[in-house]
Structure formats: structure tokens, C-alpha cells
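Input/output pair, single chain:
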Amino acid sequence: MQINADQIEQNGTIITATGNILVFSPNYFITANKAIYDKNITTMELFGNVNISKNKETVSLTNYAFLDMKNEIDNATPILLIDKKTNVWINAKTIDKTSDLNVIKNATLSSCDCTNPTWSIGFSSGDYNTTDQWINTYNNTLYIHDIPAWYFLIPAVPYVTVPSIVTAYLILKMPYMGFSTNKERRSGLLKPQFGFGQEDGFLYAQPIYYAPRKDIDFEYIPQIRTLRGNGHEFQMRYADSAYSTLEFASGIFTEKDSYFKEKNLLNQNHYGGVLKYDRKKLFSNSDSSDGFYAFLQTMNDVEYLNTKYNSDNNIINADKILESKVKYFYNTPSYNTFVEALNYNDISKTNNDDVMQVTPSIGVHQYSTSLFFDKLRSSIDFKYKRQHRVVGLGADTYDLSIPFSYSKYFFDDYLLFNYAKAIDLHLINYSNDTIDTKENGTLVSAKDTVSLEIDLLKPYETKVHTLNLKLRYANPHHLSEKGLLYR
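Output:
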């Protein structure tokens, strides 16, 4: 141990240090106004503006502290204890520490900002095990800023039943609470969701997390709304490789008979599910990239989203048309290609016979390359889309675009000349038009563009001056057009 201070006195085994104290040891870094250290029994008393950092994990701020470094016994009053690993802080009247167990009296706990926490929990006594990363607290009161949370129950007293009020009060002012501060991925209970609504009553949802291996985990989330009903959700996440993830979620919420009849809802049970899969490096190598993506969803009505668990307590307004997608792409320095399928589900209808589907959609793009010589460049873009439905008009569309460009500098690179020509082919083949026959459409168009550009730059000592002038002329025109064209 090393002690630095403005003044140090030694009397036998007792060392007294005063003024700008710095204490270094393998486990501690300490600053204080005064320190008394007993070399024989390795204890230290600290006075005034005490700051103790232990193992770079916890920080303690106090006016008085007693440290038994051999037996790891600490005592401090009053104290602000900050755990850097978990970002949990405890402001207590006293903390007595024996080894890894902190015994706490008259304290406030939070993980928010220390000066004005959004939430905090006040308790009369408790203990914190830094090794197990577990906190037990007794006689708790939840605060929202400086206001006890149970105060917010008072306006609801005339509108809800006595059991609901009592349950909510006990949750907001719990006699006992124990929880882990360990942020590592492991099985157990996750952060619950509480809420209260005039129509839903008291809301309580408790996620239960299970992680049997590093590559997979599960969540089961039961919830209850005292005036409305109850629900169940299941979630699974699985990493089948280093480049892929699979997610699956499903759930159901059942309305109470009274709520279902009073609100005249379409369904008493709201259910749905989502499947997501994302995979990279299927067939690619070091010179290319590829990926497969799938997003499939279904539900019987939008109330499924408004009744499922969400950590922000937000009401979700969803479209009545659900989009599911499956897509694969392959990209190289020379070209890019993709194929995808889109499925639309209008949950406001009994069936989707007249809803347009897109299966498949294909795209191929060749990146710009030199043609015959460097200054003449060309690229190719092709897209195919099949739009169809059981009832109603459908179509297969083909789009081919071939742009050419030529550019050259003149007058010692002061003037850039560019000429571009793009030729586009658009074809439409109609399907399912047995009642009202449509003539297939063909459109061939072109666009000529000429531009002159001047880009000047002059640096000065403190700034750079630039001047850019551009003159551009474009002439789009149709080369051929026939049939019925919907674009």
C-alpha cells in the first residue's frame, strides 16, 4: 500500500495522514481529507470527502468510512455507493460491508441519474451481495421523481374495485423485493410491466426468460388486465449460425364476456404470430455478398397488437393490410441480383381473393462498365414483377433499361462535357382478364441528355473557395407505344 498526503505522521504502527490524501493498493484507490491507518491489523479510517474505488467496479462517496482490508469489512455513513458494472447506485444512511455482503439502512436505490432520478425505490433496510449481484430490500416505496407512486392510485379509487386498489398498492409499496443486478444473459424473471387504465383496469405482465444455451432463448409472457381479460405470449430466438438469426413470436388475448359485449368487438380472442429469419453468407465468397430475409406475419385483428406486451406501454396503430416478405440477394463488384415474394393480408376482409399479391419480383443490375473505351460507359437494369389475385385483373410487367454515357474534359480540365442516352423498354402482359379483355402494352422510350459543367476550386490561407456551374439539356421521347399501359 502507498499513502500520499500533505502531512504524514507515524506513531508505532499507526500512520496518520492529512490533506489531499491519495491511497493506492492492489484493490483500492482512495481520496480523502484525513486517514488513520493501522499497519498491524490493516485497518483504515477515512474522514471528509471520502472517495473509494474498489477493483474499478464500485465507487463509494461518503464523509466517514472504516476499512478492514484483511477481512474485507467496511463501514460508511452516510454513503453513495455506485456499481459501475450494473449502473445501480444506492444512497444510504449507513452501509456495513463484510466481504461481499453490504448491509444497508435507510436508503434509496436507482439506476437513473443520481441528481434527479426518473424513478427510485426507497427502503428501510436491505442487503446487496456484489458477488451474486443480488439485492434484497424491505419496506419499499416506489417513487416517480420525488412523488410516491401509490399517490397516483388516489384518483382511481372511485372507479375500480377494492381488490384492484389493494393489489396495486402492494405492488407499488412492497414489503419485500429482491432482484438481480446481473446484466449477463441468463434465465429468470425480466422487468415486469405495470399499468392502469380506466377501461382495462390494473395491468400486470411478467416476462419469464429461459436461456438453455448461448444460441437459443425463450420467453413466456402472461398478462392480466383486471377489467378486460388476460393474455399469453411466447417468443423464441435462435442463432443457427454465426451469420443468421431466427425469431418467432405468437400470442393470444381473451376478452372478458362483459368487456366483449360492452365494446361490441369483432373478436373475443385476438391472436397472431410473426416469424423472422435473417441469413448472410449463404453462397457468397470473399469477392461477393448475399443474404436471405424472411418476415412472415398474421393476426386476426389489430387489437392483437394493442393487447400484447410492449415495454413502452404505447398504443399501437397498425394498418389493416399486413405485408409478409421473402427475399434473397446476391451482390458482386460487377452485378447485383435479387428475387423476392410479397404477400398482402387484409385482415378486415373474410378472404383475400381480390387482394393483389406480388410473387415473384426479380431484379438484375449490371454496374457501370467501360464499353469499347474508358470514356464510354454502359449499364443494364432489368426487373420483372408478377402481380396476381384470384378475383380481378393481374399483370406481368417487364422493365429493361440500358443507359449509355460519354464524358470528356476540355480546356485543360476546366470544362466537362457529358452526353447520356437511356433506352427503356416497358412491357405489360395482363392476366385474369376473361371478362374485360385488355390488350397487352408495350412502351419503348429514350432520353438524350447533354450537359456542360465547370467546377473550380481555389484554396486560401483560411478558407477554400469553390464555384460550380452546370448547363443541362434533356430530351425524353417515345420511340414506340401500343396497347394498354398502366404505369
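The two ends are 81 Å apart (CA to CA). Residues 162-172 form the longest helix (11 residues).
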